[in-house]
Fold this protein.
Amino acid sequence: MNKLSGVAALKLNGSHLGSLHVFLVAARHMSFSRAADELCLTASAVSHRINRLEEDLSLKLFHRMPRKVSLTEDGERLFSIMQRTMDELSEAVQERSHAEIAGQLTFYVRPSVAQCWVIPRLAKFTSRYPDIQLDIRVGNESIDYRTRKIDLVLCYSDGNHPGLASIHLMSERIAPVCSPLYAETNKLTGDTSQLSRCTALHDIAAWDNAAFDAEWQLWADSAGSGINLPRRFLTFDRSDLCTIASLNHAGLAMGREQLVRERITRGELVLPFGDFVDTPNYGYYLVHPHHDPMPKRLQVLIDWLVESASESSRSL
């Protein structure tokens, strides 16, 4: 019987596991002093632990010479066994790590940002994380995490979500937009005096508990005094529906830059009253319950969204 069968007979305790680790490090460096440096021990402590391990195993593991050490035949065999074991352990941990980046995530998104910003980018996420199954839900209602299993929410808000983790994803700017034909017909370019005669397209669900014309009022406050908002309006519960209506000459929509910039670049929409203005108290936020630890599949979704938002902001 191989003398190393004695390893299997050991009653492993904390002391033995620690000594086996010391042996592995010393065998890898082929030096007690370098092993001591890595392990934050003294060379004599390393030597003592290996002596104790040799006694417990009834094996001689190292040839000791004045300025160096070398492995005995039994030492080589034990080192090989331990290296193989560590490799298998590392592989198992890695497999478990990959397994955690899998499974289902329920992602709740406001409808407009879902259609105009999230959905066009999804192919990159599914290509990078093919084992994550995203269940994307859209809506405007507030989420009660106690009654609904929602992993992450992307909302347009002021970022104040008591009791929840809130991550600022990207800022937003707003400005009235319309079709080139609507601007020409109503002689709007550069002249806000004509605004009161137009039709305003309102997103009445811009954010929780918002007034029906909240975004228009926010723009008017930022754009300057003396602006008379339209008295005629159509209301929707989605910003993207306002945009579609404006594309079809129904009126002026309050455009969110992150959602309409591409249409402006293509000439489908125009900014009759100048550039976008900041919305300092509002933007896009990722909201989720607190986790300890954070599930890896949720973390990679958040990281990907942050990365995508950074790329989007650079392109504006």
Observations:
- The first helix runs from residue 5 to 9.
- The domain at 172-280 is CATH 3.40.190.10 (D-Maltodextrin-Binding Protein; domain 2).
- Confidence is low (pLDDT under 50) at residues 5-12.
